[in-house]
């Protein structure tokens, strides 16, 4: 593959040609510590690496993508004790919750999710190897990495040893040869979970997990290692020191990619500041597409500032794309057509330039505008629409619409076709969706029977609940601005004075 693509490498501080070692491209992204609900900062990072992965695959690369799960850690132990759960139960609960968040955000799964507690033999092998080679030393049941033995330590974060401070746990810190040394293996306290090791019962340090897992699943050198900027030091610096000292091969990572951090106003969003917004809270207010557009509207290396207004603007963008996709091309693709090729080229140019999704999204919005203009002037736009849809879905991971066409046979009327589209808010529970679709059908039936007043009443009532009905030549579009509570409809029919007739629900097709 030609080196059209450039990526910014934190290690060199420059944009470099992307030339992976071979096939498949090996990618590792630091995963979660499952002790609480994942927040929007996690969403940002995993959406970014999801799009990088999608784009590489779109360009024809095959990927092997590994993301670890740190399922043993001080925070997990603390929280499990607090909630009266076992460590395994707590970690499983939040791991499951993390996967359901990622699915909701349309973030594709990595190929392998190794868990720290299942990789203890490999971790011990790497720690023992480092001890053998003189890069690590045991002390009081723990094992520490001897930072002074690595001449180029600090190359990723551009720090020199003298200016560094240790940020690793203080467990057994008095036993360290030097304050910069960090822990590879922690001796356990009597009431903590532990594994047998040559140095006594203990558990792995955080940094060594990622080195051991990437060595095991991806080999000595990986192509892309990703994570948030806050992981550059000490986590990634330490990963380099461990992996290169163990394997004797450099580089451990060809391209280090780091995303900017999510901010809330001027502040970093963090658990300690108590200003976290969980992914579930955000998804209760807006669609996954809106969250993706919000994240991708800014360059991945820049900090991103969260605000409700920014999410609302992103939701508006999602709606604009959807309306274009829903637009019917009356020419049926025949005759003079809008040429989408220049837009496609610009889109690839932006993505090839260090995954400039902000620019790529802007190109898609330009294309959407051009499609609307083409439609207004009678030009065919069928092909342009499929280009828009493919780039938005395959590369940026947007779902765009969920179009459900319901055929309902109503007593005494002909079959009605209802085009119901969910375009805002999270996916409603099925019982609510069925209820709304029945009301939409009922309204159409009333309109057919020229009972305008009652029909309008249904529309007004649904609007109060945040569901807007729009009549178009394509059918009725249902816009879910929010998801009503289950039970909101209980007295609605009585209030409206409507006796809903039995309907035989037809097929529901998802497009
Ligand atoms: Zn890591």
Q: Let me know the largest β-sheet.
A: 4 strands, parallel
Shape label: globular
Alpha-carbon distance between the two ends: 34 Å
Strand order of the largest sheet: 4-3-9-10
Helix-strand makeup class: alpha/beta
**Beta strand %:** 15-25%
Average per-residue pLDDT, rounded, comes to 88
Overall number of strands: 18
Q: List all distinct small molecules, including ions and cofactors, that are bound in this structure.
A: zinc ion
Low-confidence stretches: 166-172, 406-416, 502-511
The helix count comes to 15
- Rg over C-alpha atoms, rounded to the nearest angstrom: 27 Å
Helix content: 40-55%
How does this model look, in words?
This protein is of the alpha/beta class and 511 residues long. Helix content is 41%, strand content 18%. It contains 15 helices and 18 strands. The protein has helices at residues 40-58, 74-83, 87-104, 120-132, 206-218, 232-247, 279-285, 288-296, 308-326, 341-352, 357-376, 382-395, 430-448, 452-464, 492-496, and strands at 6-9, 14-17, 25-29, 63-67, 136-139, 142-145, 182-187, 202-204, 222-228, 253-259, 262-264, 267-268, 304-306, 402-410, 416-422, 467-472, 475-480, 503-510. The strands form six sheets. A four-stranded parallel β-sheet has the order 4-3-9-10, with helices on both faces. The protein has a four-stranded antiparallel β-sheet with strand order 5-6-7-8. Strand 1 and strand 2 form a beta hairpin. Helix 4 packs across helix 5, helix 8 crosses helix 9 and helix 13 runs antiparallel to helix 14. The two termini are 34 Å apart. Mean pLDDT is 88; it is low at 166-172, 406-416 and 502-511. It binds zinc ion. Zinc ion (ZN) binds at residues 30, 210, 235.
């Amino acid at each position: 593959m030609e080196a059209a693509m450039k990526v910014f490498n934190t290690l060199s501080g420059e944009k470099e040609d992307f030339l992976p070692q071979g096939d498949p491209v090996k990618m590792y992204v630091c995963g979660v510590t499952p002790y609480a609900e994942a927040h929007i900062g996690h969403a940002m990072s995993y959406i970014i690496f999801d799009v990088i992965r999608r784009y590489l695959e779109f360009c024809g690369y095959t990927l092997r993508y590994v993301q670890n799960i740190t399922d043993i850690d001080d925070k997990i132990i603390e929280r499990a004790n607090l909630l009266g759960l076992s460590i395994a139960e707590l970690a499983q609960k939040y791991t499951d919750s993390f996967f359901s968040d990622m699915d909701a955000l349309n973030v594709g799964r990595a190929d392998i999710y190794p868990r720290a507690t299942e990789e203890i033999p490999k971790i011990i092998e790497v720690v023992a190897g480092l001890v053998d080679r003189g890069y690590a030393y045991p002390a009081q049941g723990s094992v520490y990495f001897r930072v002074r033995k690595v001449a180029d330590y600090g190359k990723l974060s551009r720090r020199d040893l003298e200016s560094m401070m240790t940020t690793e746990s203080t467990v057994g810190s008095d036993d360290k040869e030097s304050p910069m040394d960090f822990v590879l293996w922690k001796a356990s306290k009597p009431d903590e979970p532990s594994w047998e090791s040559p140095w006594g019962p203990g558990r792995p340090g955080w940094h060594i997990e990622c080195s051991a897992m990437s060595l095991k699943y991806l080999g000595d050198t990986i192509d892309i290692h990703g994570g948030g900027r806050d992981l550059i030091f000490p986590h990634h610096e330490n990963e380099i020191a461990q992996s290169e000292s163990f394997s004797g091969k450099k580089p451990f990572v060809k391209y280090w990619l780091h995303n900017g951090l999510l901010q809330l106003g001027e502040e970093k969003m963090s658990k300690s500041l108590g200003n976290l917004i969980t992914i579930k809270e955000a998804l209760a207010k807006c669609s996954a597409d809106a969250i993706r557009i919000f994240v991708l509207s800014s360059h991945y290396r820049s900090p991103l500032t969260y605000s409700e207004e920014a999410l609302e603007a992103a939701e508006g963008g999602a709606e604009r794309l959807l309306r274009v996709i829903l637009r019917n091309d009356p020419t049926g693709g025949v005759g003079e057509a809008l040429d989408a090729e220049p837009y496609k080229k610009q889109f690839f140019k932006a993505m090839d330039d260090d995954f400039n999704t902000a620019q790529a999204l802007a190109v898609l919005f330009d294309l959407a505008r051009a499609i609307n203009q083409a439609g207004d002037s009678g030009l065919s736009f069928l092909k342009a629409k499929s280009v828009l849809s493919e780039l938005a879905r395959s590369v940026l991971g947007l779902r765009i619409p969920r179009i459900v066409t319901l055929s309902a046979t109503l007593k005494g009327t002909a079959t009605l076709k209802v085009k119901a589209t969910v375009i805002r808010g999270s996916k409603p529970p099925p019982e609510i969706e069925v209820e709304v679709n029945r009301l939409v059908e009922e309204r159409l039936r009333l309109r057919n029977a020229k009972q305008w007043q009652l029909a309008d009443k249904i529309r007004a009532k649904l609007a109060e609940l945040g569901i807007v009905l729009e009549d178009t030549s394509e059918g009725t579009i249902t816009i879910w601005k929010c998801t009503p509570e289950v039970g909101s409809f209980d007295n609605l029919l009585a209030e409206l004075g409507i006796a809903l007739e039995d309907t035989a629900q037809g097929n529901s097709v998802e497009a």
